[in-house]
Each structure stands twice: as C-alpha cells, then as structure tokens.
C-alpha cells in the first residue's frame, strides 16, 4: 500500500526536478501560503475527479490551484 502512494511522488520528482525546492522555499518563507497553495491544489484536483474530468485536466486543475494566488 505504501509503495503505491510513493510512485506518484517519485514520478513527480522525475518530471519536475525543481518542484520540491520551490515548495520548500515557499514553506520556509511563508507557512500559510505554502499550506494554502497545497490545499488549493488538492481540492481542485479532487473536485475535478468528482466531476469526472480526465487525468490531463486534473493535472491542469491541480496546477491552477497551486498557482492561483
């Protein structure tokens, strides 16, 4: 079960090598903005999944949620 949860994280790190660096920099600078951005990302993707959107659109929604502010 844990391995299945790790695969998307590893895939994301491979696709976006600097993503963790930027998220960590944001977290260190402003914890509220960091948690708000991550929460919006997850909520947008969850809502899109609920609506039955395809995976590609979920990625776009998650990105928009992360960057909306």
Please provide a written account of the structure.
This protein has one domain. 84% of the residues lie in helices and 0% in strands. It contains four helices and no strands.
Short key terms for the protein model shown above:
69 residues
Reported for the largest beta sheet, the result is: none
Q: Helix and strand succession?
A: HHHH
Structural class: mainly alpha
Count the helices. How many?
Answer: 4
Poorly predicted regions are none
What's the end-to-end separation, in Å? 34 Å
User: Can you count the beta strands?
Assistant: 0
Tally of separate domains: 1
Indicate the radius of gyration in whole angstroms: 13 Å
**How confident overall, as mean pLDDT?**
84
Portion of residues within helices: over 70%
**Strand-residue proportion:** under 5%
What's the overall geometry? globular
Task: Itemize the secondary structure elements and their pairings.
Elements (H helix, E strand, L loop, with lengths): L1 H14 L3 H11 L1 H20 L4 H13 L2
Write a brief structural summary:
The protein is about 85% helix and about 0% strand. It has about 70 residues and is mainly alpha-helical.
């Amino acid at each position: 079960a844990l391995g299945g949860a790790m695969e998307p994280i590893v895939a994301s790190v491979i696709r976006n090598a600097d993503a963790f660096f930027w998220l960590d920099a944001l977290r260190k600078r402003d914890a509220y903005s960091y948690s708000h951005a991550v929460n919006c990302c997850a909520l947008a993707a969850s809502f899109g999944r609920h609506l039955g959107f395809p995976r590609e659109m979920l990625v776009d929604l998650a990105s928009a949620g992360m960057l909306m502010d």
